[in-house]
Amino acid sequence: MPAPSGTGIAERVAVGQVADRVGASAARPDGAQKTRGEFAFSSDLWMDAMLWGKTLRSPHVAARIRSIDTRPALATPGVRAVVTAADVPGRPTFGLEVPDQPVFASDLVRYHGEPLAAVAADHPETARAAAMAIVVDYEPLVPLVDPDVALEAAPIHPDGNVFRHLVIRHGDPGATGDVVVEGTYEVGMQDQAFLGPESGLAVPAEDGGVDLYVATQWLHVDRDQIAASLGLPVERVRLYLAGVGGAFGGREDVSLQIHLCMLALRTGRPVKMVYSRDESFFGHVHRHPARMWYRHHATRGGDLVKVEARIVIDGGAYLSSSNAVISNATCFAPGPYRVPNAFIEGYAARTNNPPCGAMRGFGAVQACYGHEAQMDKLAAVLSMDPVALRLRNALERYDRLVTGQVLTGAAPVREVILAAASHPLPPPADPGGSILALPGGAGATAGPGDVRRGVGFAVSFKNVAYSEGFDDFATARLRLETGVDHEPVATVTVATAEVGQGFVTLAQQIVREELGVRRVVLAPASTVDVGSAGSSSASRQTWMSGGALQLACSTLRAELLVRAAELWECAASQCVFDEGEVVQAATGERLSVQDLLSPAPLETEQEFHHRPTKALDADGQGDAHVSFMFAAHRAVVDVDPDLGLLRVVQVATGQDIGKAINPVQVTGQIEGGIAQGIGLAVMEEIVVTEGRVRNPSFTDYLLPTILDMPEVLATVIEEPEPDAPYGAKGVGEPPTISSGPAVLAAIRDATGLPLTRAPVRPEDIALSHGETT
Amino acid sequence: MPREERVPREEREEGAGASPGRAGAGDASGGVPAYVQADTYELTVNGTRRAVEDAWLGESLLFVLRERLGLSGSKNACEQGECGSCSVLLDGVVVCACLVLGVDAIGSRVETVEGLSAAGDVADIQAALVDAGGVQCGFCTPGFVVAVHDLLRRVPGADEMAVREALSGNLCRCTGYGRILEAVRDVQRSRAGSDGGHGAGA
Fold it and tell me: Has residue B93 got a pLDDT over 60?
């Protein structure tokens, strides 16, 4: 059967400039296609005779399922198949870390929107109507929705309600400071809100297996979960990356993959499924809501003595990556400061709320709202400048974290703080300016005289790549051959999910840097042609897939030297690679890459592993992380306290990135990450009432528009990371971590209100303001 | 899977299998829900008359463009008129194709990102978006191309706040809009520096 049409899954050939090397702002190889609407996203795929799939989801938060009658759906003309839990051929459950989530609920519903059945039909409207015709007899149960209560309550799942309880004990537990500040903080549930809805096309294969074209962050781990539930060997489940319309963590978990493959295998026809936006809100995990209690101890001079904290995150009904999220929240709970003594407890609880998992910043975001509010409280009590207090306690290289790990890599914490603080502040609001520049914007509600301006500061850090002993690796295959025009062609085959971050650009830059080859072809990403790349998450692909590709390049470079040495009858050590040619050191003779490729092409597949990490021990001690990224943000916000309306005027940042492999893409990551940080601070929240999702639409779940985004001033600090290829740490997550807490601090500064919860809602300002004046 | 078997987009748009969304030819239902009314009608899309055959009347213009006419450049991010990913020109006015029924576009001129691209009217906008870094995942990009085109032909010298206002119906989740604004400024600068005719009234 032919592959589905669409250029998104085809090769991306780019004839770039040799100058487009590491450090240059090379253009994306898929950019032009994307601007013309020619790039095929997973929702754009199409095949002859394909069917449309649709999921039936529970309207209840918690319920016992007495019966499911699919006959009315099957009787609908145009319906080709209906599948339920009874039809799952293999393992009935799936999951990223532990398979604790049913492919379809069969006896119990544990969250609002849990899937019960899927339908394949000739037309999407037929499929939708047929899914609605399925009769489910539910016995509603009282949902368990409070994570603190859940920790002690009767289990709602055979695996229990405590996903993970983690304790960090560091230094002297009895230590106390001259001054103590305490606070409780809350963070709401944020959605990744990638624009490209979950979608894919499954095609039954002649060998009894299935080919799945899908948008995901990690092809191989999807494949393993799908194969287990289909009861097929992994070789017969082939995944191809379709165009991915953003991810931000929301595509780490399986959503429609298994359903779609089941429908294709059942009908023997290609089946396409595209979630509506409404279904997308139910179809993927979200950022964990968190409740945090903190107590900071410091000397009168402002040195941190001890941090105590208790962080509870709500994992919802199934595990997903909650164990790793709570590990991050706990490990990074103190923020990037020297803290000699600590007692920190982290809990991830199972409830009947929507499942939560990965989102950009992954645990560090929630903790940052706590530790940065605490640092401001401490500065106020000590009558210190908040920036000065942070500089005084900023981590430095070779300092020890509360996990006992020594910071051996680059740690330019002072530098990022100073960079963020030294950007110019915006001019005062122009009283005669556009109403769009006022809080409330086009609503024209705020009077310029009522608006108060505040400035806030926040600092954060987070790990790069996977931690706690996980064998984290990426694979890259590279082929060098002579093209039809006698120019060398490098073909890169990686399973790395390009989700928008621009790894496709970096891959070409790396090959040009290492081999001086102009023509670089990126083969389609799949599970068929190459080993795993790991996930496009944890800011890890520049380091990991970039590292694998660099390794593949250096392997082939060494083989080119050997070929040259054979021709010259000298030792390979006498040959060097220079500007895309091999030079014999003694004679100055040169051979081009195409000369050396004439006998035969060269090919290699390389696996790159980062330095091993260790598990945390019973006291939360251990070298659990491979590297850390640091960032600081300063926000300026205008607030109308009477109306509770606000406008973020400016965000300035300093970010530790190691090395900018593509400066324009780095800027794009910083600005885009800050937008998501601002979103969580002031407008984005999935409102969940008694387990029920109340706002599953872009009408009711608000995303920052171009009118909401402030001026962003960014300075990158390029201090090379010793272990990392080109010295480059990740870039994607830090902008999303402390930007929001800086915005919250600015609103506190403008209003004088404590504002302990993100996102800040108008009533949090307006009603409290009314009470205090 | 052999690469030669891939169906190039041009072939699928013009070839025999040119009605994506229609299920197998032998299906009695004709790919339309059995309980609703279907009809055959004609739309004028990108200057060409296109037949929409045996289609459910409840289909949005977006669905018809994407799944029946093979024009998937208009995107389906919210299908509720909130995100602008499906922006097209209907008789010269920007609309969300998801909020217009296919049959309501009968007798109107529909211009999609594909048509604007082929006509060359938006080439400088497209190049500027790529060069400035305004494209990441790219799902919002075709909608932005249409919206920027519409703005700059109406108000070539729009100031920054006017640009922001005009584009505030287009959501982007990746870029934070900074590089998109930069691209719009680049186009404004280069158009102002040329003979002034580029793109005007296109």
Answer: yes
Q: What is the pLDDT of residue A140?
A: 98
Q: Which residues of A are less than 8 Å from B67 in CB distance?
A: 46
* Cα radius of gyration (chain B): 18
Bridge partners (DSSP) of residue A20 are none
Question: CATH number of the domain at A286-466+617-772, please?
Answer: 3.30.365.10
The ipTM (two decimal places) reads 0.96
Give the pLDDT confidence of A331-372 residue by residue, as tens digits.
999 999 999 999 999 999 999 999 999 999 999 999 999 999
Whether residue A668 lies within 8 A of chain B, CB to CB, comes out as yes
B1-56: per-residue pLDDT in tens? 333 333 333 333 333 332 333 333 333 334 566 666 789 999 999 999 999 999 99
Cα separation, A356 vs A350, whole angstroms: 10
Beta pairing partners, A91: none
If you classify domain B34-112 with CATH, what class do you get?
alpha beta
Residue B194: band (very low, low, confident or very high) from pLDDT cuts 50, 70, 90:
confident
**Helix/strand/coil (H, E, C) string of A37-74?**
CCCCEHHHCECCCCEEEEEEECCCCCEEEEEEECHHHH
**Cβ separation of A2 and B132 shorter than 8 Å?**
no
Cα–Cα distance, B34 to B38 (Å, whole number): 9
Domain B120-193 grouped into CATH 1.20.1270.360: no
Q: Are A582 and A591 in contact (CB under 8 A)?
A: yes
Fold of A473-609: Aldehyde Oxidoreductase; domain 4 (3.30.365)
Position B29 scores a pLDDT of 37
pLDDT score for A11: 58
Note whether A51-142+197-244+251-283 and A473-609 share their fold.
Answer: no
8 Å CB contact between A751 and A452 = yes
Residue A433 has a pLDDT of 86
What are the boundaries of each domain within chain B?
34-112, 120-193
Fold match, B34-112 / B120-193: no
| Omega cis (within 30) before B156 | no
DSSP H stretches of helix in A352-486: 364-382, 386-393, 413-421
Give the helix, strand, coil percentages of chain B, each rounded to 5: 40, 15, 45
Show the tokens assigned to A305.
Answer: 């003595």
Looking up tokens 């962003």, which residue turns up? A712
* Minimum-distance CB partner of B5 among A3, A192, A437: A3
Percent of chain A with pLDDT over 90: 93
What is the share, in percent, of chain B residues with pLDDT greater than 90? 76
3-state secondary structure of B145: helix
Whole-number pLDDT of residue A258: 98
Residue B201, pLDDT score: 39
Q: Identify the segments of chain A with pLDDT beneath 50.
A: 7-8, 772-773
Q: What is the Cα–Cα distance from A568 to A544, expressed in whole angstroms?
A: 36
Asked whether the beta carbons of residue B137 and residue A10 sit closer than 8 angstroms, the reply is no
CB B129 within 8 A of CB B135: yes
Place of tokens 């576009």: B105
| Nearest alpha carbon to residue A648 among A680, A620, A623, A670 | A680
Residues of A in contact with B58 (CB under 8 A): 125
Helix, strand counts (H, E) of chain A: 18, 34
pLDDT at B34: 63
Pure H helices in A540-598: 541-568, 593-597
Q: What architecture is the A51-142+197-244+251-283 domain classified under in CATH?
A: Alpha-Beta Complex (3.90)
B31 has a chain A CB within 8 A of its CB: yes
**How near does any CA of chain A get to the CA of B103, in Å?**
17
Domain ranges of chain A: 51-142+197-244+251-283, 286-466+617-772, 473-609
Contact in structure between B30 and B55 (CB atoms under 8 Å)? no
Question: Cα separation of B131 and A688, whole Å?
Answer: 41
